[in-house]
Design goal:
The complex is a heterodimer of chains A (295) and B (335). Chain A has helices at 44-51, 71-76, 92-100, 109-115, 131-143, 161-175, 188-194, 212-219, 233-238, 257-266, 281-289, and strands spanning 4-15, 18-29, 33-37, 59-64, 67-68, 77-80, 149-153, 180-184, 197-202, 205-210, 223-228, 243-246, 249-254, 275-277. Chain A is of the alpha/beta class and 295 residues long. Chain A has two domains: 4-217, P-loop containing nucleotide triphosphate hydrolases (Rossmann fold, 3-Layer(aba) Sandwich); 221-278, Alpha-Beta Plaits (2-Layer Sandwich), CATH 3.30.70. In chain A, the strands form three sheets. A six-stranded mixed sheet of chain A has the order 6-7-8-3-9-10, sandwiched between helices. In chain A, helix 5 (131-143) runs parallel beside helix 6. Chain A is elongated, with a radius of gyration of 23 Å. Chain B has 335 residues and is of the alpha/beta class. In chain B, strands 2-1-3-4-5 form a five-stranded mixed sheet, sandwiched between helices. The chains are: A alpha/beta (295), B alpha/beta (335). At the A-B interface, helix 2 and helix 3 of A face helix 1 and helix 8 of B. Chain B: It comes from mine drainage metagenome.
Chain lengths: 295, 335
């Protein structure tokens, strides 16, 4: 494992009457995409903004490359906030040039334009670009200082599915340049597609952390069989199989796949539309937080 | 320096491309100056003004009948030369000095002075020694021009800077800048310089444009006027920066800006002279930078005052600028 680029120890953020962050410990290795997931109000934005150096923790510490956050951190980190406005009446090119002037070392703007596919909108007013184009521009601004560490706070919220997938490709491209990315997202498929490691937060704490595959295998040792919900429910109960209704299907959890399938066939259960579903991060999320991600 | 220039350029572009705001900033003072010039083009004063040197008690014993005459306003002066200057420029109709043997001054070309002389002869006889001064009239438009321009500068500086920073804070742009190596002082100084450049250019355009129609009186040096106006604008902008340094609420900022602008608009002599007002009102007016800006500009334009003569105003404007910017930078928060 590579050395951590950023570590957080015993982070606490206390607001009047609310402990938004409650003893978080993190160590994020260089070059990975780290996902911070959690329901609304779990404390992930507060946590990420403490890591970004935007807010100070009530207690605890954050170290970047082994040192406390300071002027060097501002030069070497890239941030895309969840909600950001830009200077009005400037074009995309002028906005890039403005931010370029704020750093000592920068990525060449032509390279940035190509990387983030901004060539077609360079002379457009930033107030008149689409949501996807805006997110690409905000990512370009986060990359303008050629940072080692990039924070992306829910970067695809509000984008249509196509724009979201285009953004994922962009993030993968950035990741391929050996950058470290810290990502918060509401979309489990996004976390699965992009993240090498995830941490799930709830009520200010990390309730589960690891690689997606590792967490899924830790939490789910079985598989799910889905069969049409005809009149089979009673018969499944008689067979000792615990079936749960899921839409117009019945779901059966089993860790003895071969045996269960044989049992169903022998008892004449209709398997014409049988599906075997793998566990997803969404299932994991519900399992560890007891909540759906959108709640 | 690179960061400062980048933010300065961006803010200038934002202002210049916001055409509706730019047009309003140019059109409002034009309309005010030209509108008021027509409104007050006639002499519609309802009372005569007599300056008094030597105190009202001595005046009472020297000229009791005159003092009880209606429609005459008596204004006390300590400095005889200043008071004579007012008569010279038709800003006062007559001056009476009762500190020694009673004398009066009138401007030989002033109709009001001519009439007051008849009144004083009728009320007190010809006991007062007659003195005359010569000097061209300062028209009301010449008198109120510095006030109008100063007031326009006040609104542009306070609201133009205050509201913009609060908007930046509210919509998250300041938070985005906080994530960069840009310092608070660099940001605030860029806002100050940007607004200063723009307001000076706009004021110069408005002055020149109005001057083509009206032809203003300018007795002093344009360079002195530019210096004083620049300092005045800096002082007013720094008040805007101070008010906007901490709040993210446009409503609160608007309220605070109104609390500052209304007293300045009423008491700094933009619309009417405070010479006849209560002493405490005159003292209170001195705390406002706009009072010093307008007083210095009027002295330069109407009386030909030199820089050394307006230095008290210059010091106040420089000190208030430095103090307000320092406090603003200290209490400034990005979010």
């Amino acid at each position: 494992m590579t050395s951590p680029i950023i570590t957080a120890a015993d982070l606490v953020k206390q607001y009047p009457g609310v402990r938004a962050v409650d003893g978080i410990n993190l160590s994020i290795p260089k070059g990975i995409c780290f996902g911070l997931l959690g329901p609304n109000g779990a404390g992930k934005t507060t946590t990420i903004e403490i890591l970004e150096g935007i807010h100070l923790p009530t207690s605890g510490s954050v170290l970047y490359k082994g040192e406390p956050l300071g002027t060097r951190y501002r030069e070497e980190v890239g941030i895309q906030f969840q909600h950001t406005a830009l200077q009005e009446f400037l074009t995309v090119r002028e906005t890039l040039e403005l931010f370029e002037q704020l750093y000592q070392q920068t990525m060449p703007i032509p390279e940035l334009i190509e990387l983030c596919s901004l060539a077609d909108i360079l002379e457009r007013d930033t107030r008149k670009i689409s949501g996807g184009q805006r997110q690409r521009l905000l990512l370009a601004l986060a990359l303008i200082n050629d940072p080692d560490l990039i924070f992306l706070d829910e970067p695809t919220t509000g984008l249509d599915p196509q724009a979201r997938r285009n953004f994922w490709e962009l993030v993968k491209l950035v990741k391929s340049r050996a950058k470290t990315i810290v990502l918060t997202t509401h979309y489990m498929e996004e976390a699965y597609a992009l993240c090498d490691e995830i941490a799930i937060m709830d009520k200010g704490r990390i309730v589960s952390q690891g690689t997606p595959a590792q967490l899924l295998s830790e939490h789910f040792g079985d598989v799910v069989l889905q069969i049409p919900n005809a009149d089979s429910a009673d018969r499944l109960g008689e067979l000792g199989l615990n079936a749960v209704q899921a839409g117009d299907m019945l779901e059966i959890r089993t860790n003895r796949l071969h045996h269960t399938l044989q049992q169903l066939m022998e008892n004449g259960i209709n398997l014409d539309r049988l599906r075997i579903r793998a566990w997803t991060l969404e299932d994991l999320f519900i399992n560890v937080t007891g909540k759906k991600l959108s709640t | 320096m690179k960061k400062f220039l980048a933010v300065l350029h961006a803010r200038n572009m934002e202002f210049l491309r916001d055409r509706s705001a730019l047009a309003w900033n140019l059109a409002m003072p034009f309309m005010l100056v030209i509108g008021l010039a027509f409104t007050f083009s006639g002499s519609n004063k309802e009372i005569y003004k007599i300056g008094v040197v030597g105190g009202s008690e001595k005046l009472h014993s020297a000229a009791p009948a005159l003092q009880s005459t209606k429609y005459i306003q008596f204004i006390q002066y300590d400095d005889l030369d200043t008071a004579i200057g007012k008569v010279k420029h038709h800003q006062m109709d007559m001056l009476i000095d009762v500190s020694n043997a009673p004398k009066y001054w009138i401007n030989s070309s002033s109709p009001n002075g001519y009439l007051l002389e008849r009144i004083i002869w009728g009320a007190e006889g010809k006991r007062f020694e007659r003195q005359t001064v010569e000097g061209a009239e300062i028209r009301y438009v010449d008198w109120f021009l510095p006030g109008i321009l100063g007031m326009n500068m006040m609104f542009a500086c306070l609201f133009g800077v205050g509201f913009v920073i609060v908007r930046y804070r509210k919509n998250g742009f300041l938070k985005r800048l906080k994530a960069t190596p840009l310092g608070a002082f660099q940001f605030l100084f860029a806002q100050l310089v940007s607004r200063l450049l723009l307001i000076m250019v706009i004021t110069a355009i408005v002055y020149t444009g109005c001057n083509l129609f009206i032809g203003f009186n300018m007795q002093g040096s344009y360079w002195t006027l530019l210096f004083v106006t620049t300092l005045g604008a800096m002082s007013l902008i720094s008040i805007g920066l101070l008010i906007a340094a901490h709040t993210a609420s446009e409503e609160l900022a608007g309220g605070m800006l109104n609390i500052v602008t209304w007293p300045m608009m009423l008491l700094s002599g933009a619309w009417f002279s405070l010479e006849g007002a209560q002493v405490w009102v005159q003292k209170l007016a001195l705390i406002f930078p706009l009072t010093h800006l307008i007083s210095a500009a009027r002295a330069i334009m109407n009386e030909g005052a030199t820089l050394s003569q307006v230095m008290p105003h210059v010091w106040v404007l420089a000190l208030t600028s430095a103090i307000f910017i320092a406090i603003g930078a200290y209490v400034f928060k990005w979010e």
